[in-house]
Amino acid sequence: MSIRRISLRTAATATAALALAIAAPVAASAHVTATPSSTAAGSYSVIKFGIGHGCSGSPTTKVAISLPAGITAATPTVSPNWKIEKVKSGDAVTQVVYTAVTPLPDGYRDELSFQVKLPVDAAGKTLSFPALQTCAVGETNWNEPLKADGTEPEHPAPTVVVTAAAADAHAHDAAASAEATDNTARILGIGGLIVGVVGIVIAIVSRRNANKA
Q: Which of 45, 104, 157, 195 could form an SS bridge with 60, CB 3.0 to 4.6 Å?
């Protein structure tokens, strides 16, 4: 095999690898993604859902995001670009629906967000927030779980992996209260010492004045 043929094959391989490297981030950005402000079990978390493209080029007109089991309330962030509706089953919120005031063009990105309380018993679990994206023409249902082999499906559901609960809030408050009490005691102690010193100085001055008289 000639050196020229080896060089051409090496160049082709490198070009293919570069194309895959460029395509991977583009494909990932096409998904509806979920970015939480907190992942600790039992914490309040504002979850941002990134919408980065339409349906096969068609602009997005509506996005309906379903809540997973264990979450029964959501507080949506107000946005001038979207009309927001909370769908309920009884008293529980099951879905948050965003309807675009003006359709979001393909290739333009926006974020939809709402606050939820992550379940206290969900540490180590992956919570799915299926999102149905409706466009002027067609729709895409982002509701597929990871495959058994761990690979990503064509339309993965936005997910949040819940971590262990943060340090006990009551213990933190108790420590803060103890520290505040200790600081107050120190301030009072210093104040008492200053008063005592001033008293001694006044007594000495008074005695000297009395002796002079």
A: 104
Own/partner pairs, 138-144, CB within 8 angstroms, 24+ separation:
138/55, 138/56, 138/58, 139/55, 140/55, 142/31, 142/32
Beta carbons within 8 Å of 101's beta carbon, 6+ residues apart: 80, 81, 82, 83
Phi, psi of 15, rounded to the nearest 5 degrees:
-65, -40
Task: Find, among 49, 48, 52, 11, the residue nearest to 29 by Cα.
Answer: 52
Residues 99-141 pLDDT 10s: 999 999 999 999 999 999 999 999 999 999 999 999 999 999 9
112: enclosing H helix or E strand: strand 110-117
The whole model's pTM is what? 0.67
Residues 6+ apart with CB under 8 A from 34: 47, 48, 49, 50, 129, 158, 159, 160
Listed in sequence order, the residues at least 6 apart from 115 whose beta carbon sits closer than 8 Å to its beta carbon are 44, 45, 46, 47, 74, 75, 77
Quick one: fold of 31-161? Immunoglobulin-like (2.60.40)
CB atoms within 10 A of CB 85: 13
Question: How many residues belong to the chain?
Answer: 213
**Band of residue 7 on the pLDDT scale cut at 50, 70, 90:** very low
Q: List the Cα angle 89/111/109 in 5-degree steps.
A: 135
